[in-house]
Amino acid sequence: MPSSLSSPVVRFSALALTTLALTGCKRFRFPDVTPGYREFAYVSNGGANTVSILDLVYLRQDRTLQVGQNPTGLATNPKRNEVYAVNTQSGSVSVIDAERNSVVATIGVGRRPYFISVDGAGRRAYVANSESHSVSVLDLDQRREIATTFAGDQPGLARISPDARSLVVTDRGSGSVAVFAVSNSSGAPPLHLRASFPGCAGATDAAILPDSSKAFVACSGGHQVMAISLAAAADSWAAKQNPSLTRDRLLAMLDVGKTPVHLTVKPDGGEIFVSNFDSNSISAISTWTNEVESTYPIGNRPVYAVVSRDNSALWVSNFSAESISLYSIDDGKMEGSIHTGPGPDALVFSADEHLLLAADARSGDVAVIRTESKEGPTLFTMLPAGASPNDIVIKSFRTKP
After folding, report:
1. N or C: which end of the chain has fewer CB within 10 A?
2. Nearest CA-CA partner of 281 in 266, 252, 261, 253
3. How many Cα atoms are found within 13 Å in the side-chain-facing hemisphere of 382?
4. Nearest CA among 78, 73, 81 for reference residue 100
């Protein structure tokens, strides 16, 4: 069973596997970038109390920032050049200015937070505090906590919907899921409990569809995924056609593999892929029918997955197989695997998806995989991070002349 909310497993050396230009010389066989373009990967190192910053234009380590104790979850701001690191032991969130790559603020939250979710406007963030049994609401303009709300027993994750109307909170301790209505109106409470759904043992990860109509939750204490219909706005076309859609409803409890730990949504919203840690498999769920379409073997201890933006390829990190599997969604078959370090975990694409990065929880490195080349996907190099990396995110932008 997973022993930490920040990763389904406990979190090779920093040796480059190629001599190619890690010191800033001309990029070879990589897409050209325009002047002023910057792209960085941020890695939270739980065992070092740091965030490593990797320069993806020149494929080198940029710098290491000291943050709070045991940094776990990371998030980027979609509207400004900021990155947020959750410090689990410190009960705080570090604000990183991506243009200067420095910590510019620290926001106090509750006890033992693990993840942070930022709304699409980039103005508010939500943090579940597992030992405080609460959710913190953060004002990112003022860089402070503006409200806390009771959220159940050991809330692990608070996920904001794309339309910013619903906040889905997974309560691992009680095996339940809470759905809150979100308000940005002055004088109104930022969060109001709208519905609660029991029966999701060890509730951990949650995924919300791009149209904000449904949420899916991994019940990691067993072998199921909970499907929930999220309440539509009363004045929406869907609600006018069917008034029952204004209520949150349990749609189904779906049998997948044992210990589902991570959910990833296809960019088109048509399918959810479930990483079944103790079944060595991936399950595909149709979001149209709320049914499991298939479950297939993928590798030893699958722990994390990402889907390409063209909806064609699923990449899965196999924590105990020292590899990343590539599954063709269009063809319905495995395309192969790429050997990495001893414990690949969190995955993220570069902005143009020509690179896939895998944080290695055991070695403290980041595997850099070329997704396209004449030889097919290949391990290009390993970049050093820090002890026990938990999460990795990408921020890209252009600087002003």
Report:
1. C
2. 261
3. 19
4. 81
Q: What is the CA radius of gyration of the chain?
A: 20
Determine the Cα–Cα distance for residues 266 and 273; give it in Å rounded to an integer.
8
What does the DSSP 8-state code read for residue 239?
A: H
What is the block-wise mean pLDDT of the chain (401 residues), using blocks of 10 residues? 42 28 45 88 98 96 98 98 98 98 98 98 98 98 97 96 97 97 87 97 97 97 97 80 86 98 98 98 97 95 97 97 94 91 96 96 96 85 96 94 70
pTM of structure: 0.91
Ordered DSSP codes for 287-313: TTTTEEEEEEE-SSSEEEEEE-TTS-E
Joined tokens for residue 295: 């479950």
| Cβ contact 169:177 at 8 Å | yes
**Of all helices (H) and strands (E), which one includes residue 107?**
strand 102-108
* 3 state SS of 76: strand
Residue with tokens 């072998």: 223
